[in-house]
Amino acid sequence: MNAPQKHIALTAITAPAISRHDGWTIERQSIFLRTLSASHSVAEAARAAGMSRQSAYALRARLKGEPFDLAWHAALRCRFDALAEAALERALHGVEVPHYYKGELVGTSRRFDERLTVALLAMRASFGPPHRPTYHPAAGYRADDFGALLERVEHGPETWKEQMQQEEEEYFAEVAELDEEQEGEEPYGDQADGSR
After folding, report:
1. Cα 104 to chain centroid, rounded
2. Which of 10, 32, 77, 181 is in Cβ range 3.0-4.6 Å of 49 for a Cys bridge?
3. How far is the CA of 81 from the CAs of 63, 78, 124, 148, in angstroms?
4. End-to-end CA separation in angstroms for the chain
């Protein structure tokens, strides 16, 4: 499924406006995810949403593998790419180290430490969500597709299961409608002459 189809499909599936017992409304989830993507700080994002850090982790644990969890992964991945770029820059160009003699700057040198860069880049793949089968709705989203996942959290059902149930109900309603249309038709066209 490509991105335009994904967004078109989401317009038909809307999240119900329910008062949640845990306080994590769709609006708060959206604020949290947007702030997390900008700050890379769970505590700061939870504060911005008016919730606690612990409740954010509890919501994520409860919705493991659901759109909120995948958007959380994508938000962290957005910032991880910037970190990886900075680490790569340090590996390629080193860090300037000043040298002092009797309190006076006498020169600088470059120090290269590639271990951190190698470790960060090796860990990058571990920050993604679990692999989903291609028929699963989550398969249409890349691990770093933050915008689309945020839209899904804001405008779609809370869980993939709810989305699949809605899509299944829509499918069976269409099939029933087609069956009703076909019941009124002759099975083989006009059979006035008695032939098939």
Report:
1. 52
2. 32
3. 25, 6, 8, 18
4. 42
* Model confidence pTM above 0.85: no
Q: What does the pLDDT look like over 91-143, one tens digit per residue? A: 778 889 999 999 999 999 998 876 876 776 777 666 555 566 677 777 777 76
Residues 16-25: tens digit of each pLDDT? 445 567 889 9
Give Cβ neighbours of residue 17 (< 8 Å, ≥ 6 apart): 26
The pLDDT mean for the chain works out to 77
CA distance 97 to 2: 48
> Is 64 in contact with 139 (CB distance < 8 Å)?
no
**Contact indicator for 153, 137 with CB cutoff of 8 Å:** no
Contact assessment for residue 91 and residue 114, using Cβ atoms and an 8 Å cutoff: yes
Q: How far apart are CA 165 and CA 14, in angstroms?
A: 13
Residues 142/77, Cβ–Cβ less than 8 Å = no
